Amino acid sequence: MPPDLKDYQSLCESFRASEVDVLQGRQVRDLMSDLRRGKEDWDLDGGRRIAGCKTIARDTAFQLIYAFVQGYNGDGNAAYNATVFVVSHFRIFGHRIRKMVRVAFEYKFTPSVR
Q: Tell me: the pLDDT tens digits for 38-49?
């Protein structure tokens, strides 16, 4: 999909009109655990890396965009933390996903200078 928020808004609106439960009753705080599943881990016993599940993390990034576009009214700090997580993990999320999560966050919330 092209990196344009209007396209995502129309996609999210069509999901809502067809009554697809994209968020599955979850809040942004709940989405963070799936975002973290994309990170690699280190096996202390075997001394090797354990690959993260990037597809689940990328699907969850879309759920995050959906939550912002559909008017998420929950915890602003959790939304900020989820956005920073996606934007800062370039090995998990591509450029377009990171850009759209940031644009959707700025659409919903007004970031302060602090």
A: 887 777 777 777
